[in-house]
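Consider this:
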Amino acid sequence: MMYENKVKMKKTVSTIAVIALIGSMVAGCSLNKDNNQIETTVSTVATSVPTELSEEVPVPESETEKMALDIYNSNPMGFPVFINPINLNDENELQQNTGLTKENAEKVQEAAYCESMMGAHAYSLVLVKVKDASDAQTIADAMKEGINPSKWVCVTADDVAVGVEGQYVLLAMLSSDFSDLATSDSIIEGFREYMKDVDETLQNNETSETESVVAEDDENEATK
C-alpha cells in the first residue's frame, strides 16, 4: 500500500511537470526573438507552477537521489527542478539521461538526475554510482561522449563537463546563458568539495567507532 501511494505521488508530480513543460515549450519556442520578452514569459510560466508541488514531491529515497539533491543545493539555479532515479533496465531512459548504453549499465549500481521542470531551461545534473571505482573513468568518458546536449525540444546545453570521485560520476550540462549562476566546471567543483566532506564524515565516524570499541575493551579489562 505504501509503495502504491509513492507511485501515485510520483505520477502526480510527473503530471504537473508535464503541464509545466508544455507551457515552457510554448515560451521557449516562441517566434519572438526578443530575449527579454522570452525571459519574462518563461518566468511567468515558472511561477505558475502550483505551490502545493513542493509538498507533494517525494523525499529522495535512493543514495544517488539524495546526493544529487545535496549537490544541486550547493549551487541552486533559481528555477523549479525535479530529481528522479534512472531505470537502468530502460535503454531509452538510460541513454537519454546519461548517454550510456545497455552494456555500460552493467557497470552501474544506481543513478539519478536533476533537471528543470521548465523545458526552456537547458540544465541537467546526472549522478551515477558505479559498482567498481576502477570503471568510473570509463563510464565518465562514455557519458560525455554519448549524452545529447540538445535532448530538449528548443534549447541546447553548450557547457558540458564530467567529474569522477571514487565510485561516483557526475555529468553537468547547461546553457552558457546561465553562466552568471553556474557553469559545468563550478558544478563539478562543488561535487568534488561535497565528496571531500562526505569522505571526511565517513572517516570521522570510523574513527569514533574505533575509539568507542577501544574504550569499551579497556573498560572490560579494568573490570576483570
User: Anything to note?
Assistant: The chain is about 55% helix and 15% strand. Residues 27 and 37 are 10 Å apart (CA to CA). The radius of gyration is 21 Å.
